[in-house]
Amino acid sequence: MPPATTDSKSHSLIVERKDNQLWIGRFQAMASPCEVLLECRELDREAATTLVNIAAAEAWRIEQKFSRYRSDNIIAGIHASAGEPVEVDGETADLLDYADRCFHLSEGKFDISSGPLRNVWKFRGEEFTPDLAQLAAILAKVGWRKCRWQRPPPDIARRSGDRPRRHRQGVCGGSHGASVK
Q: How far is residue 148's CA from residue 96's CA, in Å, rounded to a whole number?
């Protein structure tokens, strides 16, 4: 059976059957090839394509919302804030909570503020040592420890008729930093 191809808002995906029980959906997201494997003997092409479309749409939504390479999302707003507080939605706050937890569990080895290091570190499959002066300048803009969380008490949010919101406030990474409220 030939693969089914779908194009959705300039995104394309391919769904094909590998054997009697396995469907493979392929698409691009976050500058990477992605695959969804569906193992089910009773699944037909239409159902497999629907499920792959759901997974791909979620990957594309996350990419649009959280990619640092876009200028029209919450990440761009945080970076443009120059240290001023920025209100974030619950999903972004949950992601920042998770990043904070990973930072602490890894004793600082997982640090979502490390993005600027890509400007001095080259990943070409060879041994590489960045220029130490450039590295020092970039490290001044990096460090989750430079950020702080500030959450309003849930009763304040409830009094305003809104559900409790999660907030994060602080200055991270100098001019490239995040400050969200």
A: 11
